[in-house]
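Handoff note, outgoing to incoming analyst
You'll be picking up this chain. Sequence as last confirmed:
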Amino acid sequence: MTSPANQIKIGRANAIEIGRADQTDVDGIMALQLANEVSNGGTLSASLPRARIHAMLQAMPLMVARDRGRVVGFLMTTPREMNSDFEIVRATFDAFPGAPDAYLYGPVCVDAQYRGRRLAQAMFDALRALLPGRQGILFIRRDNAASLNAHARMGMSEVAEFTLNGSVFVVLAYTG
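Most recent structure output, in case you need it:
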């Protein structure tokens, strides 16, 4: 049973649960990721395969927002080494190495019907409670103003910038 502290009330009869993802959430994460890929009109810069998401669940906390059991948001984290095979992750840590135990934050994604309800903030707050004192580092395309603004409101700071494949990315960091 979910404690009230892990829920955000939305509307009168609805409760969105914010919690740590488990293996049963992977199908929902995959579906939400697919819906938000660039090829489908979204802004996710990269897609992670199912096997990688399963491995990430074992390595670090992944947060989800669930509406009656359905994943409507996710926030992924990973140790820097785990996704270093992605060129964009290497470029991020080359631009800003961060603390020795820094981890990669992201991607974060919220179902289009649930945006504007502070779910990204709620997942971020829950993550910070699980990783106090640890530094998170993330990248966002410079032209993704909505994401840059949302992360600035969460208290994240721009620390570097890099260009990859013709796109400019901002590196942000925070400490839990």
